[in-house]
Write a structure and sequence with these properties.
- The structure holds two protein chains of two kinds.
- Chain A is an alpha/beta fold.
- Chain A has 18 helices and 18 strands.
- In chain A, a hairpin with a 5-residue loop joins strand 12 and strand 13.
- The longest helix of chain A is centred in the C-terminal third of the chain and has 21 residues.
- In chain A, 55% of the residues are buried.
- By secondary structure, chain B is of the alpha/beta class.
- Chain B has ten helices and 16 strands.
- A seven-stranded antiparallel beta sheet of chain B has the order 6-1-2-5-4-3-7. In chain B, strands 11-10-9-8-12-13-16 form a seven-stranded mixed beta sheet, sandwiched between helices.
- Chain B starts with a strand and ends in a 15-residue tail after the last helix.
- The chains are: A alpha/beta, B alpha/beta.
Chain lengths: 462, 296
Amino acid sequence: MADVLKKVPVREQEPKVRATNFEEVCLGYNQEEAMEEASRCINCKNAKCVSGCPVAIDIPGFIKEVKEGNIEEAYKVIGKASALPAICGRVCPQESQCEGKCIRGIKGEPVSIGKLERFVADYALEHDIKPVGAESTNGHKVAVIGSGPSGLTCAGDLAKMGYEVTVFEALHELGGVLVYGIPEFRLPKQKVVAKEIEKVKELGVKFETNVVIGKSTTIDQLIEEEGFEAVFIGSGAGLPMFMGIPGENANGVFSANEYLTRSNLMKAFDESYDTPIVGGKKVAVVGGGNVAMDAARTALRLGAEVHIVYRRSEAELPARVEEVHHAKEEGVIFDLLTNPKEIFVDDKGNVKGMKVIKMELGEPDASGRRRPVEVPGSEYEIEVDTVIMSLGTSPNPLISSTTKGLETNRWKCIVADEEFGKTSKEGVYAGGDAVTGAATVILAMGAGKAGAHGIDEYLKNK
Amino acid sequence: MYKILKAEKLADKIILMDVLAPRVAKHCQPGQFVIVKMDDKGERIPLTICDYDREAGTITIVFQEVGASTTKMADLKEGDAFRDFVGPLGCASEFVNEDMEELKKKKMLFVAGGVGAAPVYPQVKWLHEHGIDADVILGAKTKDMVILEKELEAVAGNLYVTTDDGSYCRFGMGSTGIEDLVTKEGKQYDVCVAIGPMIMMKFVCMLTKKLELPTIVSMNPIMVDGTGMCGACRLQVGDEIKFACVDGPEFDGHLVDFDQAMKRSQMYKTEEGRAMLKLTEGDTHHGGCGNCGGDN
């Protein structure tokens, strides 16, 4: 009998092997392992894990089914709350959500809820278990803008209620950040994302790609000319931020968005695709979030020596613990308490190095984290040929600037209430990064659920 | 899929196509652009809109074969289709939203270099349809490379064609044309719009700065998504960093850092060169370029 205080270990690709390929790192549980891990759940009456889940999955409920080997039943339990479990099982920050609240975690390791969810969802994908849709449509048309996590969730929930939903996507592929942002080795595109989207299609949701709302058409036109009675905006985050230091426009300086979009959406890592990417020999990734880890591990797989340059210490890294752990295992070097000052450029306009300065932690700032301050005179140079800026994004103005009566806040994010995603414009709801600024997949899904609920209430009472 | 209704060679390596894209055709304005993707594995390529027919739902694009992707694209024929065609992207030309009375008082000069004639055409046409006749300098390397001459003639006030080698009409580049008109012939202009290769726009701007003639340029930097997400198209414009895809593509030419923009446009030169070699050499390409180490 295994140690009940510890998680059943999950199989992974060896770090040395996976650092050279784009195959998925984590291999997941098999049924035997899943059932053993499920048996660690003590099925709390007042389960704290559920309150830690932004979409409130009945966690003890599905784990109970896994324990008994009823995987299809387990999938149905999850399906009541989440449309994208194979994705969430892979990319949710479980340690700060469900697993962070697990009673098992007090004395030992929490139940591996994320890996169990993933197992159940993958089982459903493999065995082609269909989600349960509405019996008939109610004739009301709803438009969803963006096919990322919030849009897919909102569309799926509305379709289950009987609405006729059309999702408009600006890019040529469906999935939003799930396809352009998160790398293949963390979230396989064909095996997982495309199949989960297929399930949303099976619910009756229609999709139209290559439509940029605000340009190809507007929200007002969708309502006035195309007969949509309500709209959900899940258009995601926006324009990448840069530091504003000298040399930042040099060749070889990329936003993490660009780097990841080239590799993930355009598949530049695969020679048979036409889009190029600069692999780099020595790469500095500036930032410490999940996106920074994704960019670093992508550059590593393209053959570079990779440094994460982050101005705070390891404890403040905003990335998921698993991502930091994986990045280290694979050989990413962490230059912590370090901040760029200038990028050096050669006469052809290419990056040839970067001046950085040492930092130390001072008093806590507004975010509650200790503010990093420069250590005077501690500048030094590092030799790099590629710099990837992963500093977050600012909202894209395409929708807010073309929709009459849609209020934004001082950060230019769309204003929407948390409970229903209601905006200042009648019939228009919003959620995800377009409202909150860059956050996580699961929070966006939670907002998509809230929006679906809000739209349902609105149209029922109209 | 977006069907190609017409494909026509305008000059050596310059192709015109009419593509069925009703959503784009319904909303596009002069100054905007589209992004096309040929097939599953293709790049996203930004192209200027040369004309549009709102009724028929078609967009006319004009492009030059410059790299592997555009060379492949040139092989598409009538009846073929693009996998993806998205737009209109970017902002409309400033004059589209200007007060009509104010606009009518202005004397505008357009300078089109090479395929730059394509994005200039819908602007001049729009002005013509609104009762404003703008002068146009249409420049090309040589006689055979002059495109859209007849079309521009029909909508421009005065059309001045000039060739770098003097093989047709006037002799010299676009900037020479401006100098001739303004300094020698004493023409007065309030605004100049210059669209063409970056080097041509740079020289036009150096001249118009001297002439104190406000100049708008249309930038076509490397792009990926074209919707403001990736930042690949960033440019230094005065003190600010601007994204050509959402802030542009048109900017005050006197503020654009052309040298930096030109360097940035060279970023993938080697990668592009390799892709081109692979395309032309096909199965026989086994790393003969000495750069890529072959496909293994």
